[in-house]
């Protein structure tokens, strides 16, 4: 795939490590450990306070707030914390985990977006289709059959994808067989990644952690390019992790290998492997 724009991967990675941004994470309990580790691996510092008074204090001092919609916190509490981050001019990343199966969480995400409290949204195709069309074939937190976006059906999906981001004033990112990023005008199509990234719980949550580090660690940079860089970086880490996996190792080890490769990934290797085009 030809690259029409060169993204400064090395610059972004260096700035994350130099800043070591503090990321406040409101996560589900299943993947919280992996999300913390992948934020550390990408150069950020995670904090995951679990009661309201402390959460409000941390949100005010953190560089970014990451909200996982499957967090067990009450919806209004999540809205209030996002409003605090917004008032303090801190970015908010939303991962709409499970909205295809949970109407109350879909409503939460719609409210966060419609109230202008969200900077970027990252989800799988079923989650994104639920936001765009209020319907999908997803069940639980998984991508549903028939919801996938590929190069073959991209032309049918892209207009609605871009229009939603433009209308809501957000960066919209979607993971899958191909990854997509848009700001409503530009569209990045990314072909990095590995099929095994769908074989373990939490790969999407990990990706949101990487995205949070990129946005928090690079204030003032172009959010579209930052989000694209985060998606490419995580996809390349997944590719390398599959290559170093031993014959007797399976999906649980692979999950850790991905985090390892986020930590070890060098800019030159990332640039060599990156497969993306910006339309």
From TrEMBL:
<keyword id="KW-0784">Thiamine biosynthesis</keyword>
<protein>
    <recommendedName>
        <fullName>Hydroxyethylthiazole kinase</fullName>
        <ecNumber>2.7.1.50</ecNumber>
    </recommendedName>
</protein>
<comment type="similarity">
    <text>Belongs to the Thz kinase family.</text>
</comment>
<feature type="binding site">
    <location>
        <position position="122"/>
    </location>
    <ligand>
        <name>ATP</name>
    </ligand>
</feature>
<dbReference type="GO" id="GO:0005524">
    <property type="term" value="F:ATP binding"/>
</dbReference>
<keyword id="KW-0418">Kinase</keyword>
<keyword id="KW-0808">Transferase</keyword>
<dbReference type="GO" id="GO:0009228">
    <property type="term" value="P:thiamine biosynthetic process"/>
</dbReference>
<keyword id="KW-0547">Nucleotide-binding</keyword>
<dbReference type="GO" id="GO:0009229">
    <property type="term" value="P:thiamine diphosphate biosynthetic process"/>
</dbReference>
<keyword id="KW-0067">ATP-binding</keyword>
<dbReference type="InterPro" id="IPR029056">
    <property type="entry name" value="Ribokinase-like"/>
</dbReference>
<feature type="binding site">
    <location>
        <position position="48"/>
    </location>
    <ligand>
        <name>substrate</name>
    </ligand>
</feature>
<feature type="binding site">
    <location>
        <position position="202"/>
    </location>
    <ligand>
        <name>substrate</name>
    </ligand>
</feature>
<dbReference type="GO" id="GO:0004417">
    <property type="term" value="F:hydroxyethylthiazole kinase activity"/>
</dbReference>
<comment type="function">
    <text>Catalyzes the phosphorylation of the hydroxyl group of 4-methyl-5-beta-hydroxyethylthiazole (THZ).</text>
</comment>
<dbReference type="InterPro" id="IPR000417">
    <property type="entry name" value="Hyethyz_kinase"/>
</dbReference>
<keyword id="KW-0479">Metal-binding</keyword>
<feature type="binding site">
    <location>
        <position position="175"/>
    </location>
    <ligand>
        <name>ATP</name>
    </ligand>
</feature>
<comment type="pathway">
    <text>Cofactor biosynthesis; thiamine diphosphate biosynthesis; 4-methyl-5-(2-phosphoethyl)-thiazole from 5-(2-hydroxyethyl)-4-methylthiazole: step 1/1.</text>
</comment>
<dbReference type="Pfam" id="PF02110">
    <property type="entry name" value="HK"/>
</dbReference>
<dbReference type="GO" id="GO:0000287">
    <property type="term" value="F:magnesium ion binding"/>
</dbReference>
<keyword id="KW-0460">Magnesium</keyword>
